[in-house]
Amino acid sequence: MTLLTWGIGLLVLMALAVAGMLLVKDKEMRRVFGIFLLVLVLYGMIGLSNPAARTLVNHQRLSERLVWYGILTIGAGVLIISGGIDLSIGSVFCLSAVSFALLLSKGWASPLAIVVIVAGAALIGVLHGLLVTRLRLQPFIVTLCGLFIWRGIAYWLTLPDPLAPVRGLIRFVSFGTLFTNAVTTTGSASNVGIGERSQELKGLIDLATGYPDWPAVAHIPVLGWVTSLPYRFWLLVLVAGLIGVLLHASVYGRYLYAVGANEQAARYAGVPTERYKILAYVICSVLAAVAGMLQLLELQTVSPSSGGSWYELYAITGAVLGGCSLRGGEGTVIGMLLGAAILPLLRNLCNFSGLPDDLEFTVIGVSLLLGTIADELLKRRAAARA
Question: How far is CA 205 from CA 82, 201, 308, 324, 356, in A?
Fold first, then answer.
């Protein structure tokens, strides 16, 4: 793509975004146009920083990174809309990837292993939801505990002898009368992977890493670009479409917004608020598990110590930047996707501008702070007008 063509196209898109902000009266859509404009500005800075940033290869890498951020951000966004928060997303991601690798390495059929992992993630979401709704615990505390618990279980599953701590506990409780002569294998947690099953799982691995090979489509001028995007990008589109229908085209989505905006009023209106809050936690955990399995298939190995680290930060940041209010009741799927795109664009900009990777967390933290400040100012302005 030449610099002139790229620049003209970018200016046209920015002009359309500004026009949308000025002409559209709906508050949510104006916010979406504002986020879109921010994404275009970042994209423009990247394109100007280096000619390599405008190549097809760089765009493909951006689309690959967007999948992880996008799936996690959508899950976090649904939960934030319902008035909740989940700090354990990265740990659920890690536990799902580790468990999936262990099941595959033990010879489980891949469809059965996927069902078990998704069901386990759903149970985690149900547990979080029940603790929040039935015991009235703070979501921050519940999911903070989950952050440690689920990653701790991931460590435990990768020990050379996972049953050794159980035998030690029973030996302690029984004052040494049980398992006194049991042999204990010592060692620390280690990486796990799919090992020799990589060839057998080639279809799933291609889904996580491959690109469409459709010659009939590649030569069509309008549709040829479809083959330039990885399979997993279309999986993200599918997830976004399903969640978009749930939130914006169904009564269940309206209930989620109502619960997040004013839980007490929604309860008085007959909405089963507890069910919908639990549903939001389930969606968040299941999408974290899906992202974890996809990353395992891509890398074919996962570490219990680093897998999914800080991913809850990325997910919440993307949702907030995408227009989801931390107070609940606000947000759109298209906004979540645009908010998720900001983080890989920031990382890409750091790479091409020569900024060290160590500043990544600083950039993310400042972005989250600015997004929160903007959300607060918009709230105050709306309240003053009312």
Answer: 34, 6, 19, 33, 31
Residue 322: CB atoms within 10 Å: 29
Tell me 174's DSSP state: T
| pLDDT above 90 coverage of the chain, percent | 43
CA dist 156 and 304 (Å) reads 9
Give the model's pLDDT for residue 13: 65
pLDDT at 160 over 80: no
333, 346: one domain: yes
Quick one: 252 and 113 in the same domain? yes
Report which of 70, 344, 57 is spatially closest to residue 228, judged by C-alpha positions. 57
133 and 10 housed in the same domain? no
Ramachandran region, residue 123 (left: φ > 0; alpha: ψ -120 to 50; beta: rest):
alpha
Q: What is d(CA 290, CA 97) in angstroms, rounded to the nearest whole number?
A: 9
Q: How far apart are CA 45 and CA 355, in angstroms?
A: 14
Q: Is 138 exposed, middle or buried (0-12, 13-18, 19+ CB in 10 A)?
A: exposed
* Segments forming the whole domain that contains residue 29: 1-54
**What is the tens place of the pLDDT at every residue in 135-155?**
999 999 999 999 999 999 998
CA neighbor of 208 nearest in space, from 128, 137, 280, 290:
290
CATH code of the domain covering residue 381: 1.10.3470
What average pLDDT is seen over the chain? 83
pLDDT tens digits for range 211-222:
877 666 666 666
**Closest C-alpha to 92, from 339, 315, 347:** 315
**Range 209-213, long-range pairs (CB < 8 A, 24+ positions):** 209/297, 209/298, 211/60
Question: Tokens 């390495």, residue?
Answer: 105
CA 299 from centre of chain:
17
